[in-house]
Amino acid sequence: MDNLTRRRFLTLSGVTAAGALAAGATQVHWSDLLAAAVDDPLPSDDSVLVVITLYGGNDGLNTVVPAADPAYQKARPELAYQPDEVLDLGDGLGLNPGLKGLKGLWDDKKLAIVRGVGYPEPDRSHFRSMAIWQTAAPKSPIPTGWLGRWLDATGADPLRAVSVEPTLPPLLAGATTAAASLPLRGLALPKGAVGTAYAALGKASPGEGLWQAKAAKSVLDLQEVTRVLGTAVKTGRERAEDEDEQRTQGASAGGASQLGAQLELIAGLIEAGVPTRAYSASLGGFDTHADERGTQQRLLTELDTALTPFAQRLAKTDRGKNTVVLVYSEFGRRVEANGSDGTDHGTAGPVFVLGDKVSGGFHGEQPSLTELSNGDLVAGTDFRDVYAAVLQQVLGTDPGKVLAGHNGMIDGLLV
Predict the structure, then answer these.
(1) pTM value surpassing 0.90
(2) What is the CATH number of domain 3-186+234-401?
């Protein structure tokens, strides 16, 4: 989903606050966040939620693949994966071959797969379905996102939630409070001989005065920012050059990717102690009506290439170990392949939840491929049950304050 389409989505979703926010009314600079980390650091035992949106409707059946099911093979004669092509998870299911890193997290019991997630009376419109997921209101449109309402209920500080996407998503817009926006932007320090000389300016010198010492420290602080935030604060040209080089070297389809840069930035902010409890990132392009297999596997490899080092990095620090990642898409795809080696808009799909605090394994029932509703999978888990679990066990909030009228919750998803 490109920026133009995102803007259209923001307009049509009904979350009116997000339109003004996307224009930059709440944009912050990385220096604002790092200053907040100094003034009001996040307690090391506070949990953090990272929400990753897969825009376009990811095909769940070719993500968590029922390759051994004859009904799957019959419905997708050219599109189906064979049992020996997928990464075995048990229960007759396997991960897409592009998700090798997530398979490692699964083996380490750090990945939970919630199967058959959807909502009542599904809508196959991208805009309506995404609005439902982001507002957590399947029956009637409302003007606030579910994490925006969490902000409303828990305090007025916009730094408690941060989006690193090009535009602020509706899920972070509340009625009285909205998250901050921190789009990726360029920061480059000198290289070569000039860079060496610049780095030397940050070294303390015997007998220097107060203001000389402060100036030197500012240079050191800037160097530390580039070290902590890494390639996420490189210029757009530098990132493109790095990604081109990684593609050339065959480092996996998609190179570092924009999602990789988003997650690297988030990891640095978490490690720095920024007082943010919820982050939002995204990856688009999953509307695979044609030539799906190659396109989706490339995108899932891109997701895997970004998520795996992110999870490995988080596991090395106390704050990182308290971080939970939620990955979802607005709907799955139809069970039967279409005539273009792709799939059309469908209903239920899997949700990934990962991290040290996650109870790894399957949650929820696998949808039947023979007992369908108008050719679509029947959802067995309401997406709000997933939200309720992370609201209560990650963000420490009564789900009833955010998910009005919904009482369900997935038990045992988090430890």
Answers:
(1) no
(2) 3.40.720
